[in-house]
Specification:
Length: about 425
């Protein structure tokens, strides 16, 4: 019996080393109609046997071809993790076993990397691992917060409820990120278009006007000469200007990623910028409050929950503040007092936290804090968009309109020369 047990144990790695492959098949039904589809199986023979069980006559069966360039570069997005969480919660609440749920979801994924990840989870769970343990093999897709909450849900026997709550949480976080990206992307994209149009005018349009006016022998106005000289400079030095621009962007990005001090300074500066700084503050507070409320409600101890939250605010300054709060709470400080000591949270947030602690409803109060500051982000983004529109019009008018005026000014002098 012991040898049999050893052999059984030894068979598990074999299953994991040979995951199911995707096959494309054709078959005919009893009426002679040709059907096509795809199926995950260990081999073509398994596909053939399954088709026969369904009353079909198997035809051509072959491995599903991979994309020309593979799946390199196609990562698992937060939106996919959100959908996965929601679908898992729905199927588990419907009574579908976890392994079968994972099998169904793996077959329905368009992203091959995510499909392979779900199949890996299925193999681990079918091999006897807890779902939270299986998630540990994929820390980039399922962070510490996600794993802690799943573990708490497993312990309390409410994993479907926890997954549903996680899905809602991830949706709110992604919605918040989208608002911030919208606030920053809109003015940057419009100004970038303005710069591109200006460069096209400088390098292709103004030289044509220069040749046209030169044939009439008229002196160009000073304003026009300014743009003509800028055009000549661009045409003569475009190659090294391009090198400097690309080098500056790449160098700045590399320095930012390599220097925690630079990241901290940039984050601190962003928090002080008018309008944008308020959006960043409200966003960080909202993520702090919602994440802490979610973990605390799931039964995670406060100190451990704060350890998870310290990397989830989206701001280095707030992450460091939360880490200090965790250390203070670990030695006996009340949460509201520890928050007050770091000096970065508004008095209202500290007071609501204190009320929540006294009333034994900390999670409910933190959810209210999160909702309030999410609404503040929405209002700030709308206000910023309204404020940026006249500014963008002025900048674009100066960039593009100035060039148009400079090109048409010589027409008046041209009329004098011809006259």
């Amino acid at each position: 019996m012991s040898a049999t047990a050893k052999n059984a144990k030894g068979a598990k790695p074999t299953v994991r080393e040979n995951p199911l492959s995707q096959f494309v098949w054709t078959a005919t039904d009893k009426r002679g109609k040709t059907l096509k589809g795809d199926m995950a199986a260990k081999s073509a023979n398994f596909v053939r046997a399954e088709l026969r069980k369904q009353g079909l006559n198997p035809g051509d069966i072959k491995p599903k071809s991979k994309p020309l360039f593979g799946s390199a570069g196609k990562t698992v997005s937060p939106r996919e993790i959100t959908f996965f969480s929601r679908q898992m919660a729905t199927m588990m609440a419907s009574g579908i076993p976890m392994v079968q749920s994972l099998e169904i979801l793996s077959n329905g994924q368009k992203n091959p990397k995510f499909a392979a990840l779900i199949r890996s989870l299925r193999d681990d769970v079918s091999g006897g691992s807890a779902f939270s343990e299986a998630l540990k093999a994929h820390p980039m897709q399922f962070n510490e917060l996600y794993r802690n909450l799943v573990r708490a849900g497993e312990g309390a026997g409410v994993l479907d409820t926890v997954l549903d709550t996680l899905a809602t949480y991830l949706e709110r976080i992604e919605e918040l990120k989208g608002k911030i990206k919208k606030a920053l992307f809109y003015p940057v994209s419009v100004l970038a278009v303005g710069m591109i149009v200006s460069l096209i005018l400088l390098m292709f349009v103004i030289p044509q006007f220069k040749e046209t006016f030169a044939g009439f022998g008229a002196d160009l106005p000073a304003f026009t000469l300014l743009y003509v000289n800028a055009s000549d400079f661009m045409l003569a030095n475009w190659w090294w200007l391009l090198v400097v621009a690309i080098g500056s962007v790449v160098g700045t990005g590399f320095a930012y990623r390599a220097s925690p001090t630079l990241q901290r300074n940039v984050d601190r500066w962003m928090l002080k910028v008018p309008v944008i700084g308020k959006i960043m503050h409200d966003s960080a507070i909202s993520r702090f409050a919602r994440t802490l409320a979610l973990t605390f409600k799931a039964g995670v101890p406060l100190v451990e929950a704060l350890g998870t939250v310290s990397g989830a605010t989206g701001s280095i300054i707030y992450d460091e503040a939360v880490a200090k709060i965790r250390d203070d709470v670990a030695v006996g400080y009340a949460l509201n007092l520890a928050m007050k000591q770091v000096g970065i949270f508004p008095p209202m947030v500290v007071q609501m936290t204190a009320i929540g602690e006294e009333a034994g409803a900390l999670d409910q109060m933190l959810f209210k804090v999160a909702e309030f500051h999410e609404q503040e982000v929405n209002n700030a983004v709308d206000a910023m968009t309204s404020l940026m529109e006249p500014f963008i019009i002025v900048v674009l008018g100066t960039l593009v309109g100035g060039m148009v005026v400079a090109m048409y000014l010589p027409i008046f002098k041209l009329g004098q020369v011809v006259g």
